[in-house]
From TrEMBL, chain A:
Keywords: Coiled coil, Mitochondrion, Ribonucleoprotein, Ribosomal protein, Transit peptide. It is found in: Mitochondrion. It comes from Ceratitis capitata (Mediterranean fruit fly). The gene is RT26. This is Small ribosomal subunit protein mS26. It comes from the Eukaryota. GO terms for cellular component: mitochondrial small ribosomal subunit. Belongs to the mitochondrion-specific ribosomal protein mS26 family.
Automatic annotation (TrEMBL), chain B:
Belongs to the bacterial ribosomal protein bS6 family. It comes from Ceratitis capitata. The gene is RT06. One of its GO terms (cellular component) is mitochondrial small ribosomal subunit. InterPro entries: Ribosomal_bS6 (IPR000529), Ribosomal_bS6_sf (IPR035980), Transl_elong_EF1B/ribsomal_bS6 (IPR014717). Keywords: Ribonucleoprotein, Ribosomal protein. Pfam families: Ribosomal_S6 (PF01250). GO terms for biological process: translation. GO terms for molecular function: small ribosomal subunit rRNA binding; structural constituent of ribosome. This is Small ribosomal subunit protein bS6m. PANTHER family: MITOCHONDRIAL 28S RIBOSOMAL PROTEIN S6, SMALL RIBOSOMAL SUBUNIT PROTEIN BS6M. It comes from the Eukaryota.
Length: 234, 147
């Protein structure tokens, strides 16, 4: 990058005279200096810049002006500081000066007022705390009652389940009943299939034909066709 | 104990064989300390497709369900045991759950969209999400200056 930059710089200096006549030879220079992270060039490493000589008269004049300015500013600041101190001691503009007795009386008055306030607030607070306590007690009682009712309902539901199961247990298939149950099942096949028509009629059975056994009564040939299509789709 | 339902398809057999297979299956369930609630026969008919099971091709089958209560840990044992039975073509155990209670809301769902409650809620949500627009308070319904 440095190499290209220097190239650009050198070209710029050369082209300055060149470009004056021509509108084509525009060159844009983005980097006028080498980047910050590059070290000092080797050729400039041991160069000591020469100190500029100052005019002795001018130096003396600048020194005189500087001294004058410093002196005046110092005296002004000292004056202002002393004035503030003096005012603080003498004036009573920003505070009331009281005798010790008056101060004591004022303090007592403030204390009494504070006590009165405190008592008033304490009464209010006690009332509020009492009220909150009662509310809390009511709420706790309500929750206990609700819990009791919930528990009773739960027990009732459990009892209901147990009763139902005991009732059902008569139909459970034990080892003794197994043979009869198998015979019964083989003799009575169950069919959960059914179909619906557009009126919401239910046709139970896998092979139920319209107008056959278990069919709802119907009117009109149109609906029978609908059923037939439904059957066909099943 | 949770309730389960064993749905199985038995191969085509004569009646005494069918009875013995059912008895074997039910007794293996009872032997594990389970309770059989019900035994149902769903009929004998052609299978939906030919099924090759235990090296035999089946085209007809008898459908049975056995409802029973059992410990959940024994279900995989049952599946394994019935999988070895050469008379059982297909077997699957389902858990029986309480049917959910629901109410028919078809009348509300058939209303035009603007009258449906869920659509109205959605419109409200969309209104709430809109950014507040700046009002000029100029008394005009248009912006009087060039924009």
């Amino acid at each position: 990058m440095l190499r290209t930059t220097t190239g650009v710089l050198s070209r710029l200096t050369i082209n300055e005279t060149k470009t004056t006549g021509s509108a084509f030879a525009l060159e844009f220079v983005r980097w006028r200096r080498k980047p910050r992270w590059l070290p000092v060039a080797k050729s400039k490493l041991f160069r000591v810049p020469e100190r500029k000589q100052q005019n002795a008269d001018e130096k003396a004049e600048l020194m005189r002006l500087h001294n004058n300015y410093k002196l005046q500013m110092r005296s002004l600041r000292q004056y202002l500081r002393e004035e503030v101190l003096r005012l603080n001691v003498t004036t009573t503009a920003d505070h009331i000066v009281l005798t010790p007795e008056q101060e004591e009386a004022e303090f007592q008055r403030c204390m009494q007022e504070n006590e009165a306030w405190n008592q008033k607030i304490a009464v209010e607070r006690n009332e509020r705390l009492q009220r909150e306590l009662e509310e809390k007690a009511v709420e706790i009682r309500q929750r206990l009652e609700a819990a009791r009712i919930r528990e009773e309902e739960r027990l009732e539901r459990a009892d209901e389940v147990v009763r139902r199961e005991i009732e059902l247990s008569k139909s459970f298939i034990t080892r003794d009943k197994l043979d009869t149950a198998i015979e019964q099942a083989l003799a009575n096949p169950v069919d959960y299939n059914f179909s619906l028509d557009l009126k919401g009629n239910i046709y139970r059975g896998r092979n139920t034909v319209p107008g056959g056994k278990g069919t709802p009564t119907l009117g009109g040939a149109n609906e029978i066709e609908v059923q037939q299509t439904l059957k066909a789709s099943n | 104990m949770p309730s389960y339902e064993l749905a199985m398809v038995l191969r085509q057999m004569s009646r005494p064989e069918l009875v013995s297979v059912l008895k074997r299956t039910a007794e293996s369930i009872l032997d594990k300390g389970c309770i059989i609630r019900n035994l149902e026969n769903l009929g004998t008919r052609a299978l939906p497709h030919k099924i090759s099971e235990h090296g035999v091709v089946h085209r007809e089958g008898s459908y049975f369900t056995i409802t029973f209560d059992s410990a959940p840990t024994k279900i995989s044992d049952f599946m394994e045991e019935f999988g070895r039975d050469i008379d059982i073509v297909r077997r699957r155990i389902f858990k029986i759950e309480e049917p959910e209670e629901f109410q028919c809301t078809l009348h509300e769902e058939m209303l035009p969209p603007a009258y449906r409650k869920d659509v109205q809620e959605m419109i409200d949500i969309a209104k709430r999400k809109q950014k507040p627009k700046f009002k000029y308070n100029s008394g005009l319904d248009y912006y009087p200056f060039q924009k």
